Amino acid sequence: MQWIDQNTWPRAEHFALFSGVSNPFYSTTFRVDVTNLYEYTKARGISFYYSLIYLVSHAINQVENFRYVLEEGKVGLLERRIPSFTDMKKGSDLFHIVTMACEGTMEEFCRAAREKSMTQVGLLDQSAEMNQLIYISCLPWVDLTGCTRGKAVAVNIVAILILSMPCVLGYNVLSGFAPFGEGTAILDLEDFIVSNNLLPLGSLVYVLFCTTRYGWGWKNFLTEANTGEGPKFPKWVRPYVTYIIPLIVIFLFVQGYWSKFAA
After folding, report:
1. How far is Cα 98 from Cα 103, in angstroms, rounded to an integer?
2. 258 phi-psi bin (left φ>0, alpha ψ -120 to 50, beta other)
3. Are residues 103 and 7 in the same domain?
4. Neighbouring C-beta atoms of residue 67, cutoff 10 Å
5. Helix residue ranges, H only, 177-260
């Protein structure tokens, strides 16, 4: 590691200013289209996840600013960073953390990562914990944003206050508003939106997501549902869950509209 002389370092003034604040960082998140990488890895029979780790690690190491570290008040520049990533053994419901240098070709790294992951005993190798690690974890189906907890709480407080005002004022200031005719109020409209629309349509999306190849898929759903101890979700109900339940939900959705507006 190369130690930085802060007397001649161009970033010294910025470092002095921002290192003293409580959150001296920015979080930037964005989506990346990885279709080409996915097709490349599948065509060659290598792990998409390990390949992604390999490429991300190389990209980070190409940027000097990502290789700065702070030790006992001194700034150092690492020669390279090493990926430390979560992984799971087949059939296990517990993750472990694999730490290894990103060396060789992508194919070689994928083979070495799989071998180390399969042979590792325990959650992580404590001897590999150092200041040059890149912590990587994969959460399919979930978008990680740069929104902090404080910002999320503030936004939700404002949103709840605003969205609850129609209901609060529905029986006084806005009592003259009758969305479904005389004797109805704003609360009836909100109940209609939730009970007749969001609940049935949400359940339909959930069922289709768990049973079709365009979502999670039946096999993945069944594996997750039957993980651990206790009663298992039966395989034989797949036709009922895939076809009958969606038809029942659609019928209830249409029946709700019919009884509301046509009966």
Report:
1. 15
2. alpha
3. yes
4. 18
5. 186-193, 199-211, 218-225, 238-239, 245-257
CA distance 211 to 29: 30
Alpha-carbon distance of 257 to 263, in angstroms, equals 9
Amino acid 145: pLDDT: 75
Q: Kindly state whether residues 117 and 184 are assigned to the same domain.
A: no
DSSP state of 195: I
In a domain, 151, yes or no: no
- For 179-202, the pLDDT digits (tens) are 998 889 999 999 999 999 999 999
**Both 199 and 88 in a single domain?**
no
From the CB of residue 141, how many other CB atoms can be counted at a distance below 10 Å? 7
For residue range 131-141, what is the model confidence (pLDDT) as tens digits?
A: 899 999 887 66
pLDDT exceeds cutoff 80 at 223: yes
Prediction pTM value: 0.61
| 29 and 128 co-located in one domain | yes
- Structural domain boundaries, residue 231: 177-262
Q: Whose CA is closest to 218, among 236, 200, 191, 231?
A: 236
At residue 231's C-alpha, the angle toward residues 226 and 235, to 5°, is: 55
Decide if pLDDT at 147 tops 80. Answer: no
Please state the separation of Cα 253 from the chain's center in Å: 30
Identify the sign of the CA torsion 104, 107, 111, 117: positive
Q: Number of folded domains in the chain?
A: 2
Q: Which CATH number do you get for residue 116?
A: 3.30.559.10
**31 pLDDT band (50/70/90 cuts)?**
confident
**Together in a domain, 131 and 183:** no
Residue 87 within any structural domain of the chain: yes
